[in-house]
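INTERNAL AUDIT FORM
Audit reference: QA-55
Scope: verify that the stored structure record matches its stored sequence.
Auditor: D.O.
Record contents follow.
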Amino acid sequence: MTLEEWIELAEQGDTDAQFTLSEIYRTGNGTAQDGAQAARWCLAAAEGGHPDAQFTLGDMYAVGAGVAQDYELATRWYRAAAIQGHAEAEYKLGTALEHGYGTAANFKEAADWYRKASEQGLGPAQFNLAVMLERSDWHDPDLEGAAQWYRAAADQGRADGQYALSRMHRTGQGRPQDFYEAARLCRMAADQGYSPAEGSMGDLYQNGTGVDQDYAEAVGWYQKAADHGNVGAQFYLGILKLNGLGTDQDINGAVNWLETAADQGLPIAQLNLGMLYELGNLVPQNFEKAVAWYRKAADLGDPDAQNSLATLYSSGRGVKQDAPVAVRWFRMAAEQGNAMAQLNLALRYARGEGIKQDMPEAYYWFGCAAALGNPEGKRHLETAERIMSADDIATGRALLERKPPPPGPKTVVKTLGAR
């Protein structure tokens, strides 16, 4: 049909013709592109109840194509199409409701619309529904339900679904723990260039989880993920290059990758750079750089960096000596369950260094360090019990009963050692 014939039908109120004419103007297929005409005819078809037109008009309002951008109108038209069973509209309405675009956020209704689209086989909706079912901020998590929909998305070849299902098999949450299945699914996602999966393949090969340990394979996968901007992969690639695992030792390359990760705000990379410059065994020793990197990680709440920064303030290396500031950083780390910081804080209380001497407080922090298995904390606690007064010991024990020791970190990543 010619453009004139489509126009004639559209002017007679034929909604299919109106939508087709809108698409002709929108794409420029057979005539010059004209956003305003595309929007005009799409609106006519949408008002006539054409679900594809309603969905497309929603997209137009969402991005401001041929009309002024208006999320509220976008959501309104998505809803009109969704009510008629349009799968993509159901998905986009779910997205709007989940994130509060053009409407009040409503997690339950969002999940309901995702489910409708998922049952029609729409992969993005299946993945989003699984994510919502796994979350705990709006209802009790349904891990088995999440796994079901991740599987549906994975079976359509979606890398994000494959990776999420791999994660569940790796952790044993929602699926039976199966490291081999986890590795298989992760590889499928990684082969599609999905950066999180590429990084995880590096982890699996580095640790020998579900695959034979192979540092060279780990380096290869970390390199792929690092090149795609995966900050965790950048860190581990730097560590493997630093230690010559799976590749020739390359100090400069290692530092470059660690700095790339650190500049993106990864505290463990910042911490390790601080340790590199403080120790000076692989790079020229530079306490000022050590302080700078420790401070970045410490400001982000890393307790190891806080303890290391405090130690440098205490000794005056790379920064002006400042005992009270050292105590402040020791306390931050100690309250997060860092045993070395607890020991260091206890010693400052015992000596009155940077803070008023307080033997019961020293006893308390020695006790905290000892409870976390720190041998020096245990030794100092035993010494304190021999030399402290009975009253001070009683006060210290009361503190331990009233304020149980902060728990230690659940996981500790160390690559260069720490004090």
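Auditor finding: record pair retrieved intact. Residues 411-419 have pLDDT under 50 and may be disordered.
Action required: none
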